[in-house]
Structures are given as structure tokens and as C-alpha cells.
Specification:
about 130 residues; mainly alpha; about 0% strand; elongated
Length: about 130
């Protein structure tokens, strides 16, 4: 595939976060950002952008935990008030739901963090 650096956009916060959340290269929006579940493609095959230079080690899990807890906790509190299930049943339902939601949101949060880093020029080693 021919690298086309003319497809790169100017860094922009919303553009970078949106492209990252769709798990696409934040610079061009064409190339894939991940080669697996969370492994970043080192160089974008479409535009040649070095996507591995953007740090996303700790912030993506924080964003994921923040979202999962703030979205699911009110639902489980309200369901606990409405239906009085035994604690064992609540734990058997709540723990897997929280786990699956966390695993589902994490790649999108990591992509958004990489898009954020691209938009503001945050790279490793600076």
C-alpha cells in the first residue's frame, strides 16, 4: 500500500478523539489503530504516522473505570432499591456485567486517549 502523507489532518481535539474512539489512526482516520485488542499498530499503513509514540498506558484504564462506574452504578443502585434480591444473586449479576463493560469500553477509551495525545502533540520521552 502506498503511503499518502497528504491525507493527514491538522491536529484537532475532537477530530483526534473521534478517530481514536473509532479505533482509526488519529492523523488520517483511514488506517487501523490497533492490530489486536489493545496492541497499537506502530506505523499507520495509510499515512505513515507513528502511532506508537503516543502514551496511553495509564489514562485509558482510568477513563474506562470512570465511565463504567458512573454509567452502571446508578443502574444497579436503582435495581437494588426496586427488587430486593439476595446479596449473592446481586454479586453474581453485577460483577460479570462490570467486567464485561470494562473490557468492552477499554479499546475505545485507549483510542480516544491516543487521539487526545495526537491532538496536543504529547509523545513519549518529552
Amino acid at each position: 500500500m502506498m503511503l499518502d502523507q497528504s491525507t493527514r489532518s491538522q491536529p484537532n481535539f475532537w477530530l483526534g478523539v473521534r478517530r481514536g474512539m473509532t479505533r482509526r489512526c488519529p492523523a488520517c482516520g483511514v488506517g487501523r489503530l490497533f492490530k489486536g485488542y489493545l496492541s497499537v499498530v506502530e506505523v499507520c499503513p495509510a499515512c505513515g504516522n507513528d502511532n506508537e509514540q503516543y502514551p496511553s498506558d495509564d489514562f485509558a484504564p482510568y477513563v474506562t473505570i470512570f465511565l463504567v462506574l458512573h454509567l452502571l452504578t446508578p443502574i444497579f443502585i436503582l435495581s437494588d432499591r426496586a427488587w430486593h434480591y439476595p446479596l449473592g444473586v446481586e454479586a453474581a449479576v453485577t460483577i460479570p456485567v462490570f467486567l464485561l463493560a470494562t473490557l468492552a469500553i477499554l479499546p475505545f477509551a485507549k483510542g480516544a486517549v491516543i487521539g487526545f495525545a495526537w491532538a496536543y502533540g504529547v509523545v513519549r520521552g518529552q
